[in-house]
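Incident log, entry 3
Record: DUF4129 domain-containing protein (220 residues)
Problem: checksum mismatch between cached and fresh output.
Input:
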Amino acid sequence: MSWRLASAGVFIPDGDEAQKWAEDELEKAAYQEAKPNWFDQLARDIVDAIIGLFSGDGSGNIAPFAATLIVMVLIAAIVVALIIWGRPRASRSIRRRTDLLGERDDRTAAQLRAEADRAAKSGDLDSAVVLRFRAIARALLERDLIDPAPGATAQGISREASTVFPVLSARLHDAAVLFDRVRYLDVAAAADDYRAITEIDAAVSAAAPVHAAEPEGVPA
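Fresh output:
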């Protein structure tokens, strides 16, 4: 290690030591996290490629029409990629909700269904109904079909789910009403109640979501 003494009495490292300090500093997590992700880099490369068409030594060799066509193809490719794969999203482990219907619960939909069935078999139909509605809500979250605010109620989840399953709107509302009646009004659940909410769960799982309104037919 080589050092020199500045006039103010401060030790200053030589060039090699200063470079090592800089490299060590840049290895810290804060700098690594600030690096652009793959999507940022791809977008930057595409923009650089487009700019390169109109600058540099070889730009004059590309006819204006050809340059415009290439730009249009690149833009179309980006749009298609976004439609197929969507924007980069945070990992599921980060996005996974632990708050579910006002309580901390990170069980999967499959786990909640299994717990509901066990409760029903043991005769605890109240818990079975509550757990089954939680399974419906969790399954919707796992499929990224709803994005309820923290602390969302059963009715709120039902309304949001109805936008992607309009044909099941009434049944989803009935399931939310049943959940509220058992969970908050202390109304005892019956075997028919659990059977009904199980059927609603199965219907939602089997149904195809409607993400956008279907285009109206053009009359002949």
